[in-house]
Design goal:
The protein is an alpha/beta fold and 401 residues long. The protein has 18 helices and 16 strands. The longest helix is centred in the middle third of the chain and has 20 residues. It starts with a strand and ends with a helix.
């Protein structure tokens, strides 16, 4: 897909996965947070497809009351935008697809994963390819702004609208985005009586980014019940606003009982929610390291998605505080990354990686590296690679094959 950024066009890396899925499945669904570029991805990739948006109440009502006539009224392929507004349409799509298995007929988008996943699993299992689209990656932004500093990307975030013109002010854009998200999506997905309290939970998650998630503490700080905190956090995960990285343990059964780390999925949104209004303020903040870690986790998540693979991101921590920020398990092999916001990590910064190698066995740890703001990649004496964040996507493509 081509996206307008800084008066230029930029490829979305996941476009290759989209094209492959459209040749395999009768329907393809792109899910992800609002304003991530889902509609633009489809309209630029399939410029001759018919288009309809269920965000329009009158159109949604027509799809709801006369679904068969609605679906037959468009040439194919057809892009159906914001399908979560008419989840009953999934059942009728199943009937149409079962009568004609031709791939790439229906190209769908949606911003709310709960009803979307329910509709896909109940009606379109095996008939619909699923893509989760994140906001722009550091690599995608650098394709048209090669000199952009990583800290600027951390603070500004990756929402495409913020790169549509040089005069776009994130401090004006983000409040509108948050209000729109809360008012339009949360009310539709969950019966949240007090939006102020829910907003407080969103902010509480942002300031806890890169920390182990304790639902009891979170609930106490927001003044809600722990079960409500769990339910609302699940909503934020489903909506793509936060990512949970489960704890890694050699015993798979024990992973589920250990606390995950919470990461804000887009650090620009996280900085806004935390009240960090400039790059200078971010670098001077006690949260700089945490936002850097969440930024790197986000780049790993995006790079994995761009390959079409489904590999969960874990973290590793021992009872005595040894830790590694990112662990990927590929078959019997492990890939580990530590995240350091400095420009020149040294051997002391690789202590967690050395402990991880020792605990898991060096032969099993296929690669271990530190992702930093270093302007050049280099090797530490213990064999740990130090990577600038710009080198991370290519390294992951190499490691993931």
């Amino acid at each position: 897909m081509l996206l307008h950024i800084y008066a230029m066009w930029i490829d979305r890396k996941i476009n290759r996965v989209l094209l492959r899925m459209a040749k395999m499945f009768p329907a393809v669904l792109i899910a992800g947070p609002r304003q991530a570029g889902k509609t633009a991805l489809l309209r630029h990739t399939f410029p001759h497809a018919a288009y309809v948006s269920l965000d329009n109440p009158a159109v949604a009502d027509a799809a709801r009351t006369a679904p068969d006539s609605f679906l037959s009224g468009f040439r194919r392929p057809v892009i159906i935008d914001e399908i979560q507004y008419v989840p009953s349409l999934f059942r009728h799509l199943k009937v149409v697809i079962d009568a004609d298995q031709c791939p790439g007929q229906f190209l769908l988008t949606g911003s709310q994963s709960f009803p979307l996943m329910q509709g896909v699993s109940e009606s379109l299992a095996g008939r619909c390819g699923l893509i989760r689209l994140n906001t722009l990656s550091h690599e995608e932004i650098r394709a048209v702004a090669p000199d952009i500093e990583p800290v600027r990307c951390v603070h500004r975030g990756g929402y495409p609208a913020l790169y549509a013109g040089t005069d776009m002010d994130g401090e004006l854009w983000y409040p509108s985005y948050v209000a729109t998200y809360v008012e339009r999506d949360i009310r539709n997905m969950l019966n949240v009586q007090d939006l102020t309290v829910f907003n407080r939970l969103v902010r509480a998650c942002a300031v806890r980014t890169a920390q182990t998630l304790n639902y009891t503490d979170l609930a106490r700080d927001v003044a809600i019940a722990p079960n409500t905190a769990r339910q609302w956090v699940s909503l934020l995960v489903a909506s793509g606003l936060i990512t949970l990285a489960d704890s890694f343990h050699a015993n798979r059964g024990k992973r589920l009982i250990k606390a995950p780390k919470v990461h804000i999925s887009d650090t620009g949104l996280g900085c806004h929610l935390a009240g960090i209004v400039s790059e200078t303020m971010l670098m001077g903040s006690a949260m700089f390291g945490a936002f850097w870690e969440s930024f790197v986790v986000g780049q790993v998540v995006r790079a994995i998605a761009d390959t079409g693979l489904s590999i969960p991101v874990h973290h590793w921590r021992t009872a005595v505080g040894q830790e590694v920020d990112i662990v990927l398990e590929i078959g019997d092999s492990l890939i580990a990354f530590e995240c350091k916001a400095g420009e020149h990590p040294d051997a002391d910064d690789a202590r967690g990686i050395r402990a991880f190698r020792q605990s898991q066995g060096s032969s099993r740890v296929h690669f271990a590296g530190i992702v930093s703001r270093s302007p050049a990649d280099y090797l530490l004496p213990d064999g740990t690679e130090v990577l600038g964040v710009g080198s991370l996507p290519e390294k992951l493509r190499e490691l993931l094959g």
